[in-house]
Design brief:
Layout lengths: L1 H65 L4 E8 L3 E6 L4 E6 L6 E6 L6 E5 L5 E9 L4 E6 L3
Parallel strand pairs: 5-7
Antiparallel strand pairs: 1-6, 2-3, 3-4, 6-7
Length: 147
């Protein structure tokens, strides 16, 4: 009977060793997967933010060159992880993006060297309708219709 018990103990020990090795092999793979997934999400957010800023700048330049009181309406999709949008009366729009390494800022500048962008934009993720209006020879106002 003791020989039978030794076989059972050996089988159990071998099973524990194989299961432990499999577990130790899978844990790093899972960690790498989640890290790469988060990096991918951040890259997608940056690309979407860049696209949104380009669309807003293009529309602002168009109405600026058409002159006051030109107005256009565009729809843009604000991506996740946008922490703030700054339109401060200069020629640029700044997006503040939440990243794992901390907040990072991205700018888009108007190609019309004298077009000052004013207004406000809600930075909540999702679809936004923006009204872009040339006010005079120097200002373009950007208004979020969802506010």
């Amino acid at each position: 009977m003791s020989r039978f018990m030794n076989k059972k103990a050996q089988i159990s020990m071998e099973y524990l060793l194989v299961a432990g090795f499999a577990f130790l092999s899978i844990v790093p793979i899972i960690i790498i997967f989640f890290t790469q997934s988060q990096n991918f999400n951040q890259d997608v957010t940056l690309a979407q933010a860049d696209k949104v800023m380009s669309e807003i700048i293009d529309a602002a330049d168009t109405v600026f060159y058409q002159g006051a009181p030109s107005t256009t309406t565009i729809r843009v999709s604000i991506p996740n992880y946008v922490d703030d949008v700054v339109i401060d009366g200069s020629q640029s729009i700044t997006f503040v993006i939440k990243k794992t390494s901390g907040p990072d800022t991205f700018n888009a500048t108007s190609r019309a060297a004298i077009a000052n962008l004013t207004g406000g934009l809600d930075f909540a993720a999702g679809l936004h309708t923006l009204r872009i209006q040339a006010l005079n020879d120097t200002f373009v106002n950007i208004t979020d219709m969802n506010r």
